[in-house]
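F.,

This is the one I mentioned.
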């Protein structure tokens, strides 16, 4: 995880383009090579769902497929969530296929509960998860197979299911003066709880659900909090029903089918007005300011002369898809995204992205895992019949 705004790996570059470490020159030659039909990258919700459906449809663990996970233990991105995110504050979690989530403990950290569930899931279905294995780059071979290069050797595969999510690629916006700030800058990805902001002046940047949640926590211990967003936040009083969910998914799906980067779901759905949000609004915690124009050594400032002193800037500015290792395949469209047809990459039918774009939710990841496996199996079956 990035420790600060100047970290390079996994973050956007100052020029606004994506950097990636997955190039042929940056990967040292590997000795061990393994051959499988399908490589799954990532063992979060989407990767485990894909693994379940691969097993269920006849792919054998080890020879038929493998799941490569860069983390030290089970849990996907959930294991890295801040300890104060207890389960009853999680905005929706869906069972993985074939194994119900055990009765939740509302006040137990979500990171603990979900990680334990994912570990049990891997055991229950004997999924071939190898960890920690960090994928450096994926190349196309002359024989039509994919060459998956990692820090633990190489895997060659006929098809690839990428399920790397976004957590390892926090987005740090670039604002003038950011490097001059003498206080602390951190991102949602390395937030560890409100205690580290005790008696400090904190500026929280971002208009999403995480920003609101963390503002609520920090405001109870900080000397002062200030909330800034690029656009006025849109609060949603009505419940998040199926119709709104379908609208959000449809808009993101439209973007990825056109080769554009997937947008923010909150931009479609708005922020839900919970009892906690009502309390924060009544207390003035959610009195929002427009985005500042410059960061100074001691705070943030606007062109109209307004200045807010700060000891901490917390960037709740979201994440980008962690797909830099796919760069050697040349999948990006002119619009900056990857053109998709369902889970399949239009530019390379061997590659499927799950937990990406319209499937970037727990229920969407489940469905995408099944859809990707069904399509891969149908595509590989004629070739298998020839051997």
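My design for it:
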């Amino acid at each position: 995880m990035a420790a600060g705004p100047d970290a390079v790996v996994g973050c956007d570059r100052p020029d606004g383009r994506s950097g990636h470490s997955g190039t042929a020159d940056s990967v040292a030659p590997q000795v061990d090579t393994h051959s499988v039909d399908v490589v799954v990258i990532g063992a979060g919700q989407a990767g485990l769902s894909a693994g379940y459906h691969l097993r269920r449809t006849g792919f054998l663990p080890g020879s038929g497929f493998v799941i490569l996970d860069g983390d030290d233990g089970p849990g996907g991105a959930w294991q890295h969530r801040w300890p104060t995110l207890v389960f009853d504050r999680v905005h929706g979690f869906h069972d993985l296929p074939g194994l119900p989530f055990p009765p939740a403990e509302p006040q137990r950290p979500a990171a603990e509960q979900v990680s334990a569930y994912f570990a049990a899931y891997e055991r229950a279905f004997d999924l071939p998860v190898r960890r920690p294995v960090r994928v450096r780059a994926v190349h196309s071979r002359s024989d039509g197979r994919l060459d998956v290069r990692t820090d633990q050797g190489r895997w060659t595969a006929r098809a690839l299911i990428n399920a790397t999510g976004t957590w390892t690629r926090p987005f740090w916006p670039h604002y003038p003066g950011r490097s001059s700030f003498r206080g602390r800058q951190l991102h949602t990805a390395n937030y560890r709880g409100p205690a580290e902001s005790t008696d400090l002046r904190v500026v929280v940047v971002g208009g999403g659900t995480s920003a609101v949640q963390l503002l609520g926590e920090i405001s109870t211990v900080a000397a002062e909090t200030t909330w800034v967003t690029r656009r006025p936040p849109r609060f949603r009083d009505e419940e998040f029903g199926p119709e709104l969910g379908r609208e959000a998914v449809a808009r993101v799906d439209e973007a990825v089918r056109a080769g554009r980067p997937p947008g923010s779901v909150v931009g479609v759905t708005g922020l839900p007005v919970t009892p906690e949000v009502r309390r924060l609004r009544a207390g003035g915690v959610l009195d929002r300011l427009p985005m500042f124009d410059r960061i100074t050594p001691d705070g943030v400032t606007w062109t109209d002369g307004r200045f807010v002193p700060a000891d901490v800037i917390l960037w709740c500015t979201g994440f980008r898809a962690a797909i830099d290792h796919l760069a050697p395949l040349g999948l990006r469209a002119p619009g900056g995204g990857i053109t998709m047809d369902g889970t399949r990459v239009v530019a390379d039918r061997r590659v499927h992205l799950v937990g990406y774009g319209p499937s970037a939710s727990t229920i969407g990841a489940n469905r995408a895992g099944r859809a990707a496996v069904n399509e891969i199996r149908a595509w590989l079956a004629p070739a298998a019949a020839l051997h």
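Confidence is low (pLDDT under 50) at residues 1-30.

Talk soon.
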